[in-house]
Amino acid sequence: MLVVTNSWWGLYPAVATAVGTGALIALFRAVRRQPLRPAFGGFVGVAVSGFLAARSGEARDFFLADIWWYFVASVVLIASILLRRPLVGVLWSGLQGVGMWWRHDRPSLRRYDIATAALAAVFAARFLVLHRLYENNEVGWLTVSKIAMNYPLWAVALVVVVWAARRADHRLAYCGSR
Fold first, then answer.
1. 78: Cβ–Cβ under 8 A, 6 or more apart, which residues?
2. What is the pLDDT of residues 96-116, one digit of tens each?
3. Whole-model pTM?
4. What sign does the CA torsion over 1, 23, 145, 50 have?
5. Residue 152 CB: number of other CB atoms within 10 A?
């Protein structure tokens, strides 16, 4: 939406369209009595991105917050592996309420390392591709790449995360039944 509106009418109408669309989605969810948290989060993201683009006067800056978010997320995920607390394992065990037993089980720890590394790779790939396009001021390709890299990369990472969590849960059940 941003790229098309920007090419036809300019940056400020494009930003207004993007922010207005975000507000309409939030309103639509409110009318349908659906949870507003996802819509609000998306609206805030679009508003911050729109602010950055409007402030600089460049459409490419609409993508700046996302680009740097991908960088920070990949660094945090890699750091969690290096600190021997892979974030996938920490979050999964927190959601399951089973504690951090898996940190003492080498196969489970290794699987959570792999799952966390898969997520880090998704964020790093998105950062590298989008940052390169940003540097070359390829606004259209920024949009295409952001969309094209979304579901395929997340699908692969999700398969790895589910594999790791299931294997670790299986080990917990097996070790707990002994």
1. 117, 120
2. 888 888 888 899 999 999 999
3. 0.81
4. positive
5. 10
